[in-house]
């Protein structure tokens, strides 16, 4: 990973992807709880739900990294620094 990649915050699209994935996951759970899916459809829904869960978890991890970077401070040019103690 390059220095630029390690210092860059999560992409704004990650939050939108999180919302979209969460909405779809909630819909899948509701369909599964309703009990009208066949066993095969339930397994497929579960597999899709696990993928959506992983996407949500990744977006949350990226958002947490972004917040951590912002809390550590910015340099005078407005760029986020990893360590506020270094000039």
Describe this structure in words.
With 87 residues, this protein is mainly α. The chain is built from 3 helices and no strands. It has helices at 3-7, 13-34, 39-72. The protein is rod-shaped and about 55 Å long.
Please describe the structure with a list of short key phrases separated by commas or semicolons.
single chain, 87 residues, mainly alpha, Helix Hairpins, rod-shaped, disordered N terminus
Present the secondary structure layout:
Blueprint: H1 3-7, H2 13-34, H3 39-72
Helix pairs in contact: 2-3
Strand content: under 5%
What would you report as the Rg, rounded to the nearest angstrom?
19 Å
Which runs of at least 5 residues are low in confidence (pLDDT < 50)? 1-10
Query: First CA to last CA: what distance?
Result: 23 Å
Per DSSP E runs of 2 or more residues, the count of β-strands stands at 0
Question: Briefly, what CATH class?
Answer: Mainly Alpha
**Mass-distribution shape:** rod-shaped
Tell me the series of helices and strands, N- to C-terminal: HHH
Q: Indicate the percent of residues in helices.
A: over 70%
State the domain count. Answer: 1
Q: Compute the number of helices.
A: 3
What does the average pLDDT come to? 79
The CATH topology annotation reads as Helix Hairpins
The biggest beta sheet reads: none
How would you classify the helix and strand content by structural class?
Answer: mainly alpha
Question: What's the CATH architecture?
Answer: Orthogonal Bundle
């Amino acid at each position: 990973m390059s220095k630029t990649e390690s210092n860059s915050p999560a992409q704004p699209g990650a939050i939108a992807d999180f919302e979209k994935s969460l909405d779809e996951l909630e819909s899948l759970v509701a369909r599964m709880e309703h009990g009208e899916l066949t066993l095969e459809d339930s397994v497929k829904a579960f597999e899709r739900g696990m993928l959506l869960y992983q996407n949500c978890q990744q977006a949350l991890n990226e958002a947490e990294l972004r917040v951590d970077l912002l809390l550590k401070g910015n340099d005078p040019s407005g760029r986020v620094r990893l360590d506020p103690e270094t000039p």
